[in-house]
């Protein structure tokens, strides 16, 4: 039975049966909420915490967005499309409003956000109804045939896949299961919630110039629901954006391919994307490098909150731009409003999104300058609007104080391929084991790397372009150029940790939409299908299956219980989070992110590994061009020396030296413990916590007051007299 039925109305109109649609929407939302709830619970979150987070997500993000979209509803939309657009628009509006309130010093007012949106939606709807004069606008179907039950069920399966592949950390193994990227984002989100303007939570004396829009939801959840930032970032919200991306990829497939099946294939191409060499490494060892092509789109989607939300905005921009250029209804301005909102939110959420969007769309516009088509004129309007809204935050992130651009990126043609699995293996085959690929070798192997990197998405996208090369519209050419432009950037520039790939992810998502259309329409000729299936479909499916299996095994592994000292230490971090002022600075001596993540407080010096200065100091130029290797020494030696002196001898002299480098109005706390930090695996960090001596044997340094103690931690507050 179709959820949206064609009832044979005159002139081909489609009408929705209200009861069926309402029931379907409610059932879908309930099942989706259940999918998003079970995994945090499995990983140790409390049922109450999960319920509060879902309430926040529904009432303060999804509901306001859907109200706005419903108030400005266009013909040719259904509840699935409105849910995806409403959720995305609600996320963007929430970020923009909360950031404005935070900067104004009144973030608590955000609690009234749903009420204000509801009132505005009622007013807009009322005036739109009056302005229509009772006339009914002809419904124009732009999403293809009606969505059926089987499509909705398969979409829920894909959403479950998005939940499963999302990275979460266990509550019980917080000391051995932390993931560096998530730690970094959790610390940043806590700093955004605690302090404005932001400072580096790992080095409190340094500013932080980062994509803070992506942290607005976590900060607002704490403001409204009292949830801890670390709980939201590491568990509760881990699957939120990947699920939204699945829904918007589904809607993008319907907009571009006018078919729910295209939408399902587009979502599957993204959610199952994985690098086969990376997934095979535990089975075949170093031999898997031959199949490694840096296909790390999945890491961006499931492991990085800022990258994931940036990709959601990109896909929604593609949907909106397509509708803006193709729409023939009287209310085209609605799509232009969405473009502006999405462009502004994306520019502050992930810096790699809007430069690609604006640059490639500009190329399309230049190629159509002499075109008399109305869509070409509207494309120029859209480009100007996107430039205007994206420019401020892009300039702040790229050229503001302590920006990451100068420290991260170097013009180094071919550098991205120097240590890449396939290229490195091929180089060793010809030049000998351990030989680094020469510039000529990298250049020669670059085409094969491109084919391997894009894989099934690339070959199917190419089939789409070849079949429609004479009829490609502006948005389709733009999506192709996003992939081309991102590839050129990767081949010309280098960044630590292969961060240059961020600029390619946008194009990969856009190409996935076109690839889905090609696969469903059968654009690949019969002669080439066996080759495509053997060389691209099978490896793609195998990589995706291995990625899912790896995550399932992680879910059901036997977690090592924490020791008494480790559990006590976690209790101490929670005490810091709940009892110290938000603007306080903590003194620790660990060398890794810990207090800034679980304790959610800025630290005098925790680590400089994630600073622009550290990235810049790690570059060196040799005979073969730029090379990045982690810096051995700290780039803030004076801070390290001050901290070391205090740690070795917390005397009044060293306390004053340390206190002099912290603003006088700031509360300062010192943490005394016995914690060793070690690397565990490829990305994780392991904390070895040792119980301290009996409390009676702990001498409180002069000038401090003991405020907390347990078996693993002592927390002392600096006396106010030291600030004078």
Tell me the distance between the termini: 75 Å
Q: Got a strand count?
A: 14
Order of strands in the sheet with most strands: 7-6-10-14-13
Class of secondary structure makeup: alpha+beta
Strand content: 5-15%
Concise summary:
The protein has 724 residues and is of the alpha+beta class.
How would you summarize the topology of this molecule?
Blueprint: H1 18-42, H2 47-71, H3 79-104, H4 113-131, H5 149-165, E1 178-179, H6 180-194, E2 199-200, E3 203-207, H7 216-225, H8 229-236, H9 240-257, H10 260-271, H11 276-284, H12 297-303, H13 305-326, H14 333-349, H15 354-367, H16 374-399, H17 405-408, E4 410-411, H18 421-431, H19 439-467, H20 474-492, E5 493-494, H21 502-521, H22 529-555, H23 564-579, E6 585-587, H24 595-599, E7 602-603, H25 612-617, E8 619-622, E9 625-628, H26 637-648, H27 652-659, E10 668-673, E11 675-680, E12 684-689, E13 704-709, E14 713-718
Parallel strand pairs: 6-7, 6-10
Antiparallel strand pairs: 1-12, 2-3, 4-5, 8-9, 10-14, 11-12, 13-14
Describe the structure.
Helices cover 59% and strands 8% of the residues. The chain has 27 helices and 14 strands. A five-stranded mixed beta sheet has the order 7-6-10-14-13, covered by helices on one side. A hairpin with a 2-residue loop joins β2 (199-200) and β3 (203-207).
């Amino acid at each position: 039975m179709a959820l949206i039925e064609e009832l044979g109305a005159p002139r081909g109109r489609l009408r929705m049966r209200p009861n069926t649609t309402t029931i379907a929407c409610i059932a879908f939302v309930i099942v989706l909420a259940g999918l998003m709830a079970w995994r945090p619970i499995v990983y140790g979150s409390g049922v109450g915490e999960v319920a509060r987070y879902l309430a926040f997500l529904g009432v303060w993000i999804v509901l306001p967005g859907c109200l706005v979209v419903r108030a400005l509803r266009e013909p040719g939309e259904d509840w699935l499309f409105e849910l995806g657009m409403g959720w995305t628009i609600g996320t963007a509006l929430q970020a923009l409003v909360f950031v404005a309130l935070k900067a104004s010093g009144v973030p608590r007012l955000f609690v009234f956000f749903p009420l204000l949106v509801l009132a505005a939606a009622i007013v807009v709807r009322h005036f739109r109804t009056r302005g229509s004069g009772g006339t009914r606008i002809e419904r124009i179907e732009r999403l293809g045939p009606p969505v059926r039950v089987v499509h909705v069920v398969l979409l829920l399966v894909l959403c479950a896949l998005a939940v499963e592949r999302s990275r979460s950390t266990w509550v019980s193994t917080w000391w051995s299961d932390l993931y560096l990227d998530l730690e970094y984002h959790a610390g940043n989100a806590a700093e955004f919630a605690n302090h404005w303007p932001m400072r580096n939570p790992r080095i409190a004396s340094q500013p932080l110039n980062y994509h803070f829009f992506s942290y607005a939801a976590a900060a607002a959840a704490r403001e409204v629901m009292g949830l801890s930032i670390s709980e939201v970032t590491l568990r509760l919200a881990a699957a939120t954006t990947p699920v939204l991306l699945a829904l918007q990829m589904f809607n993008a497939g319907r907009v571009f391919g006018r078919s729910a099946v295209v939408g399902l294939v587009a979502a599957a191409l993204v959610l199952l994307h994985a690098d086969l060499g990376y997934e095979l490494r535990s089975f075949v060892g170093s031999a898997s490098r031959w199949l490694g092509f840096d296909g790390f789109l999945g890491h961006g989607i499931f492991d990085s909150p800022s990258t994931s939300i940036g990709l959601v905005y990109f896909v929604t921009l593609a949907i909106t731009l397509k509708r803006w250029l193709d729409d023939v209804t009287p209310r085209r301005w609605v799509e232009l409003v969405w473009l502006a909102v999405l462009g502004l939110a994306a520019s502050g959420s992930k810096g790699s999104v809007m430069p690609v969007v604006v640059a490639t769309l500009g190329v399309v516009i230049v190629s159509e300058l002499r075109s008399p088509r109305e869509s070409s004129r509207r494309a120029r309007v859209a480009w100007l609007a996107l430039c205007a809204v994206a420019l401020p935050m892009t300039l702040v992130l790229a050229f503001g104080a302590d920006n990451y651009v100068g420290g991260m990126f170097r013009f180094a043609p071919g550098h991205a391929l120097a240590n890449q699995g396939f290229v490195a293996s091929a180089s060793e085959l010809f030049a000998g084991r351990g030989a680094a690929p020469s510039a000529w070798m990298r250049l020669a192997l670059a085409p094969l790397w491109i084919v391997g990197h894009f894989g099934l998405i690339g070959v199917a996208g190419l089939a789409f372009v070849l079949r429609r090369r004479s009829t490609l519209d502006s948005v389709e050419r733009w999506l192709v150029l996003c992939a081309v432009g991102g590839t050129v950037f990767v081949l010309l520039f280098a960044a630590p940790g292969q961060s240059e790939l961020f600029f390619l992810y946008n194009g990969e998502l856009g190409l996935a939409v076109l690839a889905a259309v090609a696969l469903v329409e059968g654009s690949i000729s019969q002669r080439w299908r066996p080759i495509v299936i053997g060389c691209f479909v099978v490896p793609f499916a195998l990589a995706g299956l291995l990625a899912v299996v790896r995550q399932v095994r992680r879910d059901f592994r036997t977690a090592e219980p924490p020791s008494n000292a480790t559990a006590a230490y976690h209790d101490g971090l929670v005490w810091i989070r709940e009892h110290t002022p938000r603007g306080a600075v903590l003194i620790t001596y660990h060398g890794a992110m810990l207090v800034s993540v679980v304790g959610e407080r800025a630290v005098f010096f925790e680590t400089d590994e994630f600073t622009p200065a550290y990235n810049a100091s790690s570059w060196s130029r040799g005979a073969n061009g730029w090379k990045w290797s982690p810096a051995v020494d700290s780039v803030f030696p004076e801070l390290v020396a001050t901290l070391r002196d205090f740690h070795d001898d917390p005397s009044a002299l060293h306390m004053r030296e340390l206190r002099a480098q912290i603003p006088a109005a700031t509360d300062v706390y010192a943490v005394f413990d016995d914690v060793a930090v070690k690397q565990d695996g490829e990305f994780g960090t392991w904390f070895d916590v040792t119980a301290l001596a009996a409390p009676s044997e702990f001498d409180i340094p002069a000038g401090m007051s003991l405020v907390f103690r347990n078996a693993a931690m002592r927390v002392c507050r600096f006396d106010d007299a030291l600030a004078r």
